[in-house]
Amino acid sequence: MKVFFNVSLILLMGVTLGLAVRFFRNASDRNAPADGDVVYTNDAVLDGLTEDEILSIENAEVSHPPEDEAWLSRFELVERSGESISSEDLLGSPYIVSFFFSTCPSICVQQNQKIMELQQEFAGQGVRFVAISVDPETDTPEKLREYAARFNADEKQWLFLTGDLNYIRRVGAEVYRQPVNKQFHTERFVLVDPAGEIEGFYNWPEPSQLKKLKKRITEFVTAKEN
Predict the structure, then answer these.
(1) Which residue ranges make up each domain of the chain?
(2) pLDDT of 66-81, one tens digit each?
């Protein structure tokens, strides 16, 4: 009788667990974004991390500046040329901000290949690209010069920036609303208008989002020509 009770209890627990999994899976499907929605994901970077490590990244201290410091509205970082580049230097033309690190073996390479395609498509049209390293200890200006050469990055059109990691965390969170940490970034391109205001966030792995980004860039270019 006791054995029968234990078996029944195990079966009941199994059925309950199965129903729970099905419920949450269905709930997830119901909440899944449509094809045209902006989606913020970075699964490739999070693979292999523990739950605590993921939480520590997503809740990095950059979300709140120190009490004695104002919220950042501008920045100044070092370009691969060794020159300082400020947010004011970027005004007057639309530009796209991305975060990366040079030793990333996969997602960053794919991301920068997309930017290379955009650079070719909008060559000579005043559009700029700003890639900010999230591993600045490794990504010195010299390292960035070597890395940028892999993508035929035009020195005037495509900037590669580095600096202090804590400062870059704040630039990501406070200026561009991007959660970044050492060797961590999202799969979003941030489109900034000529006045320096964020126009939108575009998840580059999604073809529909990339198409929308190109359309919006074209609108900025056309408006400037007129």
Answers:
(1) 1-32, 43-225
(2) 555 688 999 999 999 9
User: Which residue in 142, 129, 139, 132 sits closest to 82, CA to CA?
Assistant: 142
pLDDT digits (tens, 9 = 90+) for 177-203: 999 999 999 999 999 999 999 999 999
Q: Can you tell me the distance from the alpha carbon of 103 to that of 93, in angstroms, rounded to the nearest whole number?
A: 30
CATH class in words for 43-225: alpha beta
3-state secondary structure 113-158: HHHHHHHHHCCCCCCEEEEEECCCCCCCHHHHHHHHHCCCCCCCCE
Is the Cβ–Cβ distance between 213 and 191 less than 8 Å? yes
Q: Dig out the tokens for 204 from the structure.
A: 């580059």
Q: How far is CA 220 from CA 116, 120, 131, 189, in A?
A: 19, 17, 20, 16
CB 53 within 8 A of CB 216: no
Angle at 175 between CA 146 and CA 76, to 5 degrees: 50
